[in-house]
Amino acid sequence: MTVPPSGPVGSTSPSPGTGTTPASSTPPGLTGTAVVGVVGMAVMGRNLARNLARHGHTVALYNRTTARTDEVVAAHGHEGTFVLAPDLASFVDALARPRRVIIMVQAGAGTDAVIDQLVPLLEEGDIVVDGGNAHYTDTRRRERALRAQGLHFVGAGISGGEVGALEGPSIMPGGSVESYAALGPILESIAAEVDGEPCCAHLGPDGAGHFVKMVHNGIEYADMQFIAEAYDLLRGAGLDAEQMAGIFRTWNEGDLDSYLIEVTAEVLSQRDARTGGALVDSIVDAAGQKGTGSWTVQAALELGVPVNAIAESVFARAASSHPELRTAARAALSGPTTGTGSGRSGADREAFVEDVRQTLWSAKVVAYAQGLHLIRVASQTYGWDVDIETVARIWRAGCIIRARLLERIRGEYAANDLVTLLEAPSIRDGLATTQASWRRVVGAAAQAGVPVPGFAAALSYYDTLRAERLPAALIQGQRDYFGAHTYRRVDDDGTFHTRWSADRSEARV
Residue 16 — pLDDT band, cuts 50, 70, 90? Predict the structure, then answer.
């Protein structure tokens, strides 16, 4: 059924009591009229479809429960042109060639089920897009399978939540160059923009797009943990929620300007209608997670890439969600009780607040550095050729981790061939300035017994990378002792083993 901007027209009467349209095929004259189709009318799917329609694209809609598509058109049919399809065959018939199908259903088995139903209806050159939070290995598997059948499969990370899907997300598509030629202009037209540049770009073949989105979410976990630690430290210094909201608003006007800092100020300023106090004080201190942060850490382990600050943010959420563990430990363990605010007032408190601000910026930089390095290594491993400057560019708006810092990161990668973000001139100089505050805060937190796993892990990563020599030499000696795993020498080429259980002479192996 076609629904022009004026609202639903030409639809047949619904079957009694069903609320759905009984049509079984695309009406005459509507075959091939939709330039893109969306499968799945949950919040993200319907908002993405509305975004596409608002930008002048005729959009075919399909949902397993047709009442969902009817609801979308009834409420939003005036926003553009939709073609309602009661079944997948009608949906496919409604699409112009090459057919562009965006799947917005639950990741995993749900996505595979839709693909299995779609593929027999498609023709060579058609494009299937998974816009959900799929694991990149699933995307690589699906891309191989569809490529063998002459179809293009695109794993597209879409960030920004339901508001971003409607008003302009950051979009991270992978897939073939050919698929992006047909799909890219449509996605770019609905993406967020910065200075006229769309926050959407082709990132590489097969799983590149979903890998980048996964790492985006890992950085998001870290950023949120760092902000939570800053909040905890400020609370320990005697500041109430409203005072902290004001501090975060001020921070949002400088180098820390970001969506998550903005959100933090809003949450801290919200009053609880039941108690009259700050809402944050009435929320159970257990954070949930949906898995993408864990996937980031797992991928890093598989690729041998250190992302300890991101990992600690995942583990911090896990620790918060084990009440029996925390209850048992509280009853058994002792520690400092003075808090970070002990003896602080006036100028001393202001100095501490500034130290926390600089620590938050420093740790945030490390999270980006770890995530971007992980993308770099994965790109080399899988042959994706992901451009890191492009990644930073499309994260500048629309997504959850959008921040002023990303413009600086984009510029540094555009101007320099970087192994790590931490060597970029402006970042290196910034950390040289902030590290004294960073060390004071981590030290003060340890003395006061305030957990700052994110801040501490980020600082440890910084010190690990800059160290002239690491204690790994001892570990390798231990490995050779009990397992004959060999070692390399600093003064000679080759591999060596000490005969520990014999005369302890050294042998080249």
Answer: very low
More confident residue, 355 or 290: 355
CB atoms within 10 A of CB 281: 12
pLDDT at 7 over 60: no
Q: What is the mean pLDDT of residues 482-488?
A: 97
Options 143, 220, 229, 312, the catalytic residue: 220
Which one from 79, 213, 312, 412 is the annotated catalytic residue? Answer: 213
Would residue 220 show up in a list of annotated catalytic residues for this protein?
yes
Confirm if 405 and 427 have CB atoms less than 8 A apart.
no
* pLDDT tens digits, one per residue of 184-234: 999 999 999 999 999 999 999 999 999 999 999 999 999 999 999 999 999
Give me the residues paired with residue 170 across strands: 159
Strands laid side by side in the 36-39 sheet: 2-3, 82-84, 59-62, 36-39, 100-103, 127-130, 152-159, 170-173
Q: Are 305 and 377 in contact (CB under 8 A)?
A: yes
pLDDT for the residue 107:
87
Nearest to 224 by CA among 171, 264, 267: 264
The dihedral of CA 400, 405, 407, 408: what is its sign?
negative
pLDDT of 29 reads 55
Indicate the helix (H) or strand (E) that contains 461: helix 453-466
Q: What does the block give as tokens for 369? A: 């550095």
Q: For residue 105, give the DSSP letter.
A: S
CA distance 376 to 359: 26
Asked if residue 10 has pLDDT above 60, the reply is: no
Strands (E), 12-150: 36-39, 59-62, 82-84, 100-103, 127-130
**What is each CA distance from 424 to 252, 371, 376, 437, 464, in whole angstroms?**
23, 15, 15, 20, 17
Calculated CA dihedral for residues 396, 400, 403, 409, nearest 10 degrees? -60
Report the DSSP beta bridge partners of residue 158: 171
Q: How far apart are CA 220 and CA 423, in angstroms?
A: 22
Q: Could you please report the per-residue DSSP string of 253-271?
A: TTTT-BHHHHHHHHHHHPB
